[in-house]
## 1
Amino acid sequence: MAKQEDIFKNVVSHAKEYGFIFPSSEVYDGLSAVYDYAQNGVELKKNIREYWWKSMVQMNENIVGLDAAILMHPTTWKASGHVDAFNDPLIDNKDSKKRYRADTLVEDYCKKLEDKAKKEIDKAKARFGDAFNEEEFVTTNARVVEYLGKKKEILSRLAKGMTDDLQDVKALIEELGIADPETGSKNWTDVKQFNLMFGTKLGASAESAMDLYLRPETAQGIFVNFLNVQKSGRMKVPFGIAQTGKAFRNEIVARQFIFRMREFEQMEMQFFVRPGEEMKWYHHWKDTRLKWHLSLGLGKENYRFHDHEKLAHYANAAADIEFNFPFGFKELEGIHSRTDFDLKAHEKYSGRKLQYFDAELNENYVPYVVETSVGLDRMFLAVFATSLQEETLEDGSTRTVLKLPAVLAPTKAAVLPLVKKDGLPEVSRKIIEDLKWDFNVAYDEKDAVGRRYRRQDALGTPFCITVDHQTLEDETVTIRHRDTMKQDRVKITELRGIIENEVSMKNWLMKM
Ligand code: GAP
């Protein structure tokens, strides 16, 4: 079996080779954690965005869309808490000049303690077999008790240091003898808070310019427009506002390809509800969002919930939908019950009322909010990495196939004349002229037809339509299915229906 690391490398190189994702400004050696979506990537990304938009906005009478500007009044970020609290605690190594998240260094140390405990448990399990009582062993074995106890103590000191005094976090790092993972040096600077927002300026002259931020989440554009949308759309609580768009974070540990980027896209929906009803809606959206993911058919086993124990100051419940990426289970989407924190904060900082008059209750209130927030780039990575497969065929040969959900595939069908003569290209072009109004279709006449099939497999195209000499006689073609490689002879007039049946969003979303 291929190693996780190799699978991931393969994903990155396939994305580049087949025109899905390029490193940004590659001619200048790229820009760290910034990527460009290429000719096929942009289509796949657009289709994921549409699949989300259709299920959230078009299918729900009480959810409407919004496209707020990336640049917002700077007080927005004071109110939301991002100016004061959207920080990572950083520490530099004086010798290596490398920068790390101080909390991650301590957490990695604790992970090692946990691994040691697990090793002891596994050893005992193997020794005692069925008679092994893990619960008892964990509380009585001296070494396991020591490892886990130490871990607990360190994490609680870390949490205290993070809120009270970052000097204590540095002292903890020194006391534990934590070294630079790359060089082994223990020569550390103090720990400093580093704000993740990118700053920019508005205005022509240096004196009059106003400091702005590139938004770190799309959600605040929704909050500040809450009353505009509610009034102009005559929306009744409960209702939602959905938005997709770019967000920017100056991530320090930006690794893992498009998983953690500095410029990325979010698909967020804020659902405004009556105070006291937020838990009902929180569970509803947790459930609905998981069903949306499952409708794409990437495998139930690849998803799990992670319910947060430690909640952000504005939340009274939160969970992540985690996905099994090539580097393990990681957050794909967040579902948060954000209480009335954001709207109340904007009321306070703007001096304007952001309240809703509930005619049924005959009262004014600031609604509570349940948020669903999924990263479009992470969705792309989840879909792309899971779909990329190496298959061994019956004759022993192998093929690389990108088994994208057909509804998301960049190109739905490729039309291939068997040979470049005898009028076959002309018939192929006619088929394309007819289908292109409804589907993204491609024409390919280069190389032997078998190689063209393989190329379309690697691009994730669900259908290849081959025009041959029989087509000239009876207006039939062969249609080849990507996943089964099965070929059927069908009438040209049947093509639209066959493709539509496999790629229509309706058929896919009905699986929810
Ligand atoms: N409005 C809530 C919010 O922004 P978040 O958990 O910080 O919550 C939501 O982000 C989602 O955005 C994440 O689940 C992830 O999919 C995506 N995301 C966050 N940071 C990202 C980054 N640096 N690169 C790519 N996607 C990111």
## 2
Amino acid sequence: TIQLMNKFFLNLGKQPLANNYQKKFLKKQVKYNLKLYFNSKTKLVSISKRIPSEKMFNNKYPYKSSMSVTMKNSFKILSKEIKNKFNPNLLLEIGSNDGTLISNFKRNQVIGIEPCKNLAQITKKMKYQTYASYWNFNLAKKIKKKHKQLDLLYSANTLTHISDLSDVFKSINHVLSKNGVLIIEDPSLLECIKKNSYDQFYNEHIYLFSAISVEILLKKFDLQIFDIKNLKTHGGSLRYYIKRISNENIKISKSVKKQIHKEKKFGLDKFSIYKKFTINIKKSKSKLIKILKRLIKQKKRIIGYGATAKAVTIMNYCNIDSNIIRNFTDTTPDKINNYMPGRNIKILKYKKDILKKYDYVFLGAWNFKDEIFKKEREFIKNGGKFITHVPKPKII
Ligand code: TMP
């Protein structure tokens, strides 16, 4: 019945798996249709195609949280806040990646969960207790058996990557103590719609949460949001502080009503806003192509900065190849010298002077614009220009 509530609003075309960087460019690659839906009952925005987790999160996952100073700082600040406000005996992080958050804690204070074996290996080597497993009920049972109940669970940019949200929250419920707190953070649907950042959508981002949809979802599990913070990370994220409904010791902050009010005022609970979004995205696509093609006519050399999964969505949706964007550059070891998934654009190792050879830089990692502009002062001083598509395609 839930299927019937799903309303289609945008097709982002044939897309490869976003993190499937390849040593050689293959003309024939497995692609799928990236289609976006709004569920009028649960208010969840999601993609229709579900790729098995094993195909996305395996022993070769390239993305590392530690690649940006912005994320490292964000996790550091949060870890201080957790210690000061909640002081948990034991913290469990679902999706601990390369340990950027947990390394701020003592080894006996945290447990990491990370299904990507190459990443789990990193925190294991650092002697942090790490379960190299997917977050599901079987694992929750195992953890409860060993560690009893947990008073703090944290998860950033992970739960929206898991198809079965019922299992996710059932499993959280199983290990969370009576007065325990769950903190989750993910890109904000409101910010995405406001910024026309359709590149938030790719095969790994199955859902894009709003406070409205998270509240509806949590109710079924005796959980509720008691505080919300707007973050700048990942182009605008929301951090949800969650408790059991039955726990009356924690007061509910005004921030919750405020955020939900803001989202409703914008229309996130109604289908019409998504139809508007679709129109904006089609415009965004043609404008970006127009800008890039004009620059190519003027013989300008363009490079992409940050070979992000987001940029994969853009390059494939807008059909941009190496005749337009010659290369990308990135600091991530597992992306360097590989091709952008689905495209014949090679990713070059980031070096201090790399931008010198180019006239324009397309911001693949627009979410780290401040950090990148700071780093590339020289290029900007010497007349180098950036191109972004957020909130609208333009040269900056
Ligand atoms: P994300 O937007 O999905 O978090 O990915 C950011 C990507 O950008 C990641 O591959 C690292 C890369 N990056 C750089 O290459 N240089 C930088 O200065 C920053 C901030 C990120």
